[in-house]
Amino acid sequence: MTETPQVTGRHRELLDQVLDKWSLHVLDRLCEGPLRFNGLRRAIPVVTQKSLTAALRRLERNGMVERVVVSTRPVAVEYRITPLGKTLQDLIDALLLWTADNLPDVERARARFDDASAVAGGE
């Protein structure tokens, strides 16, 4: 049995960058196939251009995504998942499935907590 590694600052930094608000969406979309920037914007309509650019740069720096210049007229840029990024697909799918399966329980827990906090705060 493999021992669980200690979570260091370096681990936390990587997890923060891979699991941040937009990176998870980008990785999920690119696991389905390559997309151009505007294709990603359409696939994730609530992301701003600035946030998407920052997420793509972080993921490219970490080796999860590659930026490929496509020789067309006009020249276009396409983003693709790398083999390293592809290793996250099952984990991302599991997280999204867990969220869908457990969201009702989480919402009930939040409501109970909020109700109890309101009562305690009113005393």
From TrEMBL:
Protein name: DNA-binding transcriptional regulator, HxlR family
Pfam families for the chain: HxlR (PF01638)
Organism whose genome encodes this protein: Jiangella alkaliphila
Stretches assigned to the HTH hxlR-type domain: 4-107
Gene Ontology molecular function, alphabetical: DNA binding
Keywords of the record: DNA-binding, Transcription, Transcription regulation
Region forming the signal peptide: none
Keyword Amino-acid biosynthesis: no
Organism domain of life: Bacteria
